[in-house]
Amino acid sequence: MRLTVAIDGPAAAGKGTIARAVAAEFGLAHLDTGLLYRAVGRRVLAGTEPVEAAQGLRREDFADAQALRTPDVAQAASQVAAMAEVREALVAFQRAFACRQGGAVLDGRDIGTVICPDAEVKLFVTATDDIRAGRRFRELREAGHEVTLAAVAADLAARDRRDRARATAPLTPAEDALLLDTSELNIKEATARAIVAVRAVFDRLQAAGAVPEGQ
Ligand code: CDP
Predict the structure, then answer these.
(1) Distance from Cα 200 to the centre of ligand 1, integer Å
(2) What distance in Å separates the CA atoms of residue 90 and residue 78, rounded to the nearest whole number?
(3) Domain holding 122: CATH number?
């Protein structure tokens, strides 16, 4: 079965939550590609050269999920993510994941445009700057980080600016992406809309015999 769902969008728009819900609903594997860049950023903060860090990522680099979710690591991630050679080093892994038997959901910035331009479903998830900053502020506070709303808003704005302006794989919706603005939606409503969009394609593939019955 070949079903790839690409979910892109700016920081803290709700991509991860939606991606996890879609993966659970349809029995697909899920890859949060932001974690790859965060793991590289974290290694760079620890003194490794960026391209070497990207080429040498290991399973252990993902063991401490909380350590990857800090604002400092997020900033470092967006800096290394602007480097073409760093991105290049991560392409093969992401494409192999996307093509895995059983189907996959990948969320990030360039999944629908660069990593999987042939993905069967593409979503571009957005929300207003204020809503995104508020959501990330609450997440970070709940995880025990001493942050202010103003600092979180500035962090998101700086990363989004860098992600949109970079020459390689900038953050932009694929032409054929479905736009999903989650500003006025709660988690249940946002995930329900994404599931409806995937369901249409999933049912078509299943009818064509491309998806095993029962999934
Ligand atoms: O969770 P949040 O949306 O704040 O960020 P993330 O998805 O964990 O990504 C962290 C950073 O990695 C982003 O600001 C991007 O600079 C970079 N990134 C990227 O360039 N391409 C991707 N496919 C995923 C993340």
Answers:
(1) 28
(2) 14
(3) 3.40.50.300
Does a structural domain hold residue 212?
no
Within-domain flag for 157: yes
Query: What residue has token string 């736009």?
Result: 179
Q: What is the pLDDT of residues 154-192, one digit of tens each?
A: 999 999 999 999 999 999 999 999 999 999 999 999 999
Please check whether residue 33 lies inside any domain of the structure: yes
pTM of the model: 0.95
Among 8, 78, 161, which is best to mutate for testing ligand 1, by the most ligand atoms less than 8 A from CB?
A: 78
- Bridge partners (DSSP) of residue 23 are none
User: Can you tell me which atom of ligand 1 is nearest the CA of 9?
Assistant: 3
- What percent of the chain stands above pLDDT 70? 97
**Residue that the structure tokens 């629908």 belong to:** 112
For residue 151, what are its two tokens? 């600092």
Atom 15 in ligand 1: which residue has the minimum CA distance?
A: 78
Question: What domain range includes position 54?
Answer: 4-207
Confirm whether 145 is domain-assigned: yes
Distance CA 139, CA 135 (A): 6
Q: Report how many domains make up the chain.
A: 1
